[in-house]
Give the backbone structure.
Amino acid sequence: MWDTLNNQLLLLATLIGAIASVPILVEYLIDRRKRKERLSLALDDEAVDDLHPRVAGLDELLAENADLIDRARDPAPYRPLTLGNEILILGRPQTGKRSLAQRIAKEARFDRLVTVYNPRNKDALAKAKSLLHGHKRKKAMLLLPRIDLVFQDPDEDLRAELDALIETTTNKENVLVVGTAVEFEADSELDNVFGTKLVLPGTPRSEDPARHVGEEARRMLTQVIRFYLKDATDAGFALAGMTPDEFVMRVLQRVGNPAEVEDIVALCRTRSIHRRRTGKTTGLEIDADVLSRAMDRVIVNVDAPPRRNPPHAEGRGA
C-alpha cells in the first residue's frame, strides 16, 4: 500500500512540476520566435546576380576606384600587398552608399552579399560570421550600413562581437568588408578599423585636422615611410617625377601614425599594379597623382551633418 501511495505522490509531484514549467517554456518559445523575427529583419544573405543597384551620378567615383574593384575581383596580382580588405563609404543619409557597395559587389563579380541592416544587433553580427564561414568557397561581401552607430554605442559586448566578425574576415581573399557611415572623425576608432575610405560626391570635406606630431615621432614616421618605400622599390616599384626625399616629405605632411603610412604605400602599389594591368603604364610607377589619391583614401576628414533627430540605423533603402 505504501509503495502505491508513494508512486501516486511522485506522479502528482511530477505533474505539478510539469504544469509549473509550462509558462517558462512558453515564454522561452515566444522569446525565441521574436529573436528569429528580429534577426530576419536585421540580416540578409542574397545572390549578387539578383541585385539591381541604382548608382546614378556615381559612375565617376566607380571609375576612380577601378583598382580597388579589380583587386577584389582578381586578388592574385595584388597578393603581396599588406592591405586589409575593409572599405568605408562615407556620405550623407540617402546618398547611395549601399547602392555603391552593391555595384562594387557586382563589378567585382561576387557571389553573395551578406547585409547586416542593424550592426548594433549582436545576434545579427554572430549570424553574419556564421554565414561568411559557410561561403568559404564563394566570393562574398559583408555590408555593414551605418557602422558609425556601433562606435557611438557604449556596449562593450557589441564592440567585441563586431571586432570578432571583422577579425575573422579581414585576411580572407574571398571576403570584402564594406561599412557605410554618415558621421566620421579622423583618428577615431572607426578610422583605425577601416584603412581605405571612399567619400561620396557632395559630402562636405573639411581640411585635414592638425596632427600634433612631436619631433621624436616625426623622426620615427620618417623612418617608417622610408622603410615602406624601400620595400616597394625592392618589389619593382619606381618613383616617377619625384625623388625619395620628396615622397617622404609629401607623406610626412599628412600622416599621424605608422598604420596610415603602411596603408598609403599599399594603395600606391595597388593603383600602380592596376595601371600596368590596364596598359596605362608599362612599369610599376608611383607618381604624384598616385600618391595624392592614396593619401585621400586614407586620411579623410568630413564635416558632421546637422543633428535634427536621434540617429537610427540605415534602412534597406539607404
In short: Residues 215-298 form a domain with the Helicase, Ruva Protein; domain 3 fold (CATH 1.10.8.60). The radius of gyration is 25 Å.
